[in-house]
Amino acid sequence: MIGGGPGGSVCAAQLARLGRSVVVLERAAFPRFHLGESLLPRSLPVLEEIGVLDAVKARFILKYGARFHDDIHGRKDRFSFDAAWKPAVEHAFQVPRDAFDALLLDHARACGADVRERWSAERVVTDERGRAVGVDAIAADGAARRIDARFVVDASGRDVLTARAAGTTSKIAGLDQTALYAHYEGVPRQGGRLEGDIDIVLFASGAARAAEAAGDAATADSELTRAGERPNWFWFIPFADGRTSVGAVVSRAWMRERRARLGGAGDVATALFEVAVSESPTAAELLAGARCLWPSVEATADFSYRVRETSGDGWLAVGDAGGFIDPLFSTGAHLAMIGGKLAADAIASALDAPDDERQIVGAWEEAVRAGAETFILAVQAFYAGPLVGYLFAEDKHSALRRSITSLLAGDVFGDAVWLRDTRLRLKAMLASAGAHEA
Ligand SMILES: Cc1cc2nc3c(=O)[nH]c(=O)nc-3n(C[C@H](O)[C@H](O)[C@H](O)COP(=O)(O)OP(=O)(O)OC[C@H]3O[C@@H](n4cnc5c(N)ncnc54)[C@H](O)[C@@H]3O)c2cc1C
């Protein structure tokens, strides 16, 4: 296993529980910071199956829903997970990833995996037929080592070890966002069951908002189109210890225009984050009495990509190593954990029936890709515009609203009728906006 994030840890824990011998190579020493702090309800059955759910429940705040605020048109709405098509799991968790990932990796260890921190995988070793047969690594003591394996899992996250070596990554059309983020204390929260909600705040430039406030929707929309900036958004993710993770996700056009206005000197990420806050009345209100806990705001850009092949002879790639989608729906850790668990089951079956490996691993790849592609459609329909309207639709009981709630809960695996219908509707939304799924 290359990497001990959620994808690698869940896969390793499940393989060990199935009686397989697993070595996990993790380059970092845990705990370490990571983005991806808002989880989805449909991950919980996996956490339960590998035996770590109670430990997670004891440490992290429960997330029962997602609140959306639209600072452009002055609307807000909340999606409660208990209104999904299959509401069996009605909450998720908000997790500082240093603590969550350490808990999962320790759990993989407790299940029997041989976890080696500060070991860096350098490349996958193949035999003369091209089958993966192990990994060349640099051990914690700096020595070069080779680990032999009957199967190799790439769970290296956005390092995408195997796809980078093969040149099989590609950008996703319409997704070129940058995230500016930091941790805060003193951000006000709702009470009771709503305390752990994620807040998603859509915002745009002052000019667009002024036009909207004057009742000039056409000018507001053309301002947004001109700036190529629809829609930018903030996340507010509350943690159990009172801290809140805050991030602004903005388009490339927004970055270009605001950066040119600011000039290049000083702490550009923090200055750009402050500009974003000044453009969002809701973010400004939430941060008015808050204090940033970091020396400066961090930035990461252009994070969405697809990977053409996520499996081959003797190997597969889980989580971000197999592709990454814009974080709007908080999907990354969910896809990594579901994909990791299903991968472990597939690998265990393939090791028992080597002649069927291609077919077993191929079925795994197809199932995981179908789930990810549904999220990609939803994210593209959001950035192209049409899905935004449906998020704030008046009819609170429509089938589409239940479908959106189910997507927000992470229910994208399988072949339910509502899921097929939702994919078609998202495709229709994209077509209506003149955008293309790609
Ligand atoms: C701006 C932003 C916001 C996000 N917000 C959310 C969110 O709210 N919710 C959510 O679910 N997801 C979110 N994500 C996505 C989330 O961060 C990832 O999808 C998730 O961490 C994927 O898990 P993983 O196990 O595949 O990879 P990772 O968590 O990245 O773990 C990979 C591990 O592999 C190790 N590694 C890498 N290379 C090597 C090597 N060569 N040898 C050994 N070890 C190696 C790394 O040290 C790392 O620990 C966000 C992402 C971004 C960019």
| Number of strand segments | 21
CATH class of the largest domain, please? Alpha Beta
Distance between the termini: 31 Å
CATH fold type of the largest domain: FAD/NAD(P)-binding domain
What is the rounded Rg?
A: 22 Å
User: What is the overall pLDDT average?
Assistant: 93
User: Unreliable stretches, pLDDT < 50, 5 or more residues?
Assistant: none
Q: Characterize the main sheet.
A: 8 strands, mixed
Any ligands, ions or cofactors bound here, and which? flavin-adenine dinucleotide
Would you write up a description of this structure?
With 438 residues, this protein is of the alpha+beta class. It has two domains: 6-60 and 95-173 and 303-432, FAD/NAD(P)-binding domain; 178-300, D-Amino Acid Oxidase, Chain A, domain 2, CATH 3.30.9.100. 40% of the residues lie in helices and 22% in strands. Strands 3, 4, 12, 13, 14, 15, 16 and 17 form an eight-stranded mixed sheet that branches. A three-stranded antiparallel sheet has the order 7-8-9. The chain is globular. The protein binds flavin-adenine dinucleotide. Flavin-adenine dinucleotide binds at residues 2-8, 25-28, 34-39, 120-121, 155-159, 161, 179, 247, 300, 303, 319-321, 324, 327, 330-334, 336.
